[in-house]
Amino acid sequence: MSLAFFNGEFLPTESVVIPIDERGHQFGDGVYEVIKVYDGKPFLMREHLVRLENSAKAIRLEMPYSVEQLEDLIHEGLTRAELRDAQVYLQITRGIAVRLHAFPDAPPSVSMTFRPSKSLTEEVFNAGVKVALLDDERWLNCYIKSLNLLPNVLAKQTAADRGCFEAVLVRDGYVTEGSSTNAYAVKDGVVYTHPANKRILHGITRAAVLQVAAELGIEVREELYTPEFLLNADEAFLTSTTAEVLAITQVDDTVIGTGKPGPIVRKLHAKFRELIG
Ligand code: PDD
C-alpha cells in the first residue's frame, strides 16, 4: 500500500493535507530526493541522503534529522507500508509560515511518500527511447535537488508532446542532462558526460555507473559535448534512480547508432543490475 509521512506522523497518503502556508507549496522553498527500493533494500540510500544534506546546506536550510534518523524513518515507513519494491519520495522545506519571501522563524517540514515501484518494463529497456533536444532554461544551481522544477516539467511535457520519453537539455551549445536524468554519448568506445559542476544534478546513478564503467574498463570522459556530437554518437543513454541505465536510440529525427541499445549501454546496465543485487 502507499503511505505518507508529514512532520512526525505516518498517515495514509490520501489523508495528508499540507497546510496552505507550507513553503514548499508557496515558494517551492525546499529540496528533495527519490530513492528506489529493491526487495526491501533502499538502493544507495546513504548517498541520496548525503546529497539531500548538501542540497539543504546549499539553500541554507537546517536538516531537522540526521542521515541516520532519516534512514530509520525510511525503514520504518517501508515496514509500515509493507512494501518490498518501492519508491520513496522525501522532501524537506523551510516550514509553515505566513507568506513572506525571507526565511521564516519556523521549523522545517519533512514529508515522505512510500509507494509501490513504477519500474520501466524490460521491453522499454530492450528497445531504448527517443529524446528531444531542448534549450536548458533552468537556473544556474542545477546541482541542488530543489523543488523548483518548472523548467524541467515544461521540458518533459514538450518532449512528451513530441512522442519522446525525455528532453535532453542544451545550454550554451553543450548538452547538460535530461529533465530528470543524466545524459551520455558514446563514441569509439568512450563514454562522454557533462562534468559534475553546477549545471547538472550530480546523479547518484551517474556516480554508480561511472564506478561500474571503471570496473568494466570502459573509459569515461567528463567533458562538454555538443548536440552534434550526440547526434553522431555510436550509442547514447540516460541514467536516473527510476530509469536505471536506459539507451537513447533516437534524438528528434536522428537515429543513434543502429537504432537499438548498443553493447556499451547493455554492459553498463547489466553490471549496474548486479550492483542492485
Ligand atoms: N530525478 N538530473 C535531474 C535533473 C534529475 O531530476 C535526476 C533525478 C537526475 C538523476 O539523478 P539520480 O541518479 O540521483 O536519480 C539527473 C529524480 C529521479 C526525479 O526527480 O524524479
From TrEMBL:
Keyword Protein biosynthesis: no
Membrane-spanning parts: none
GO cellular-component term (any): cytosol
Protein origin, superkingdom: Bacteria
Cofactor: pyridoxal 5'-phosphate
EC annotation from Swiss-Prot or TrEMBL: 2.6.1.21
InterPro entries noted in UniProt: Aminotrans_IV, Aminotrans_IV_CS, Aminotransferase-like, BCAT-like_C, BCAT-like_N, Class-IV_PLP-Dep_Aminotrnsfr, D_amino_transT
Catalytic reactions on record: D-alanine + 2-oxoglutarate = D-glutamate + pyruvate
PANTHER family, per the entry: AMINO-ACID AMINOTRANSFERASE, D-ALANINE AMINOTRANSFERASE
Family the entry assigns: Belongs to the class-IV pyridoxal-phosphate-dependent aminotransferase family.
NCBIfam families registered for this protein in UniProt: D_amino_aminoT (TIGR01121)
Protein name as it appears in the record: D-alanine aminotransferase
Organism (species): Tumebacillus flagellatus
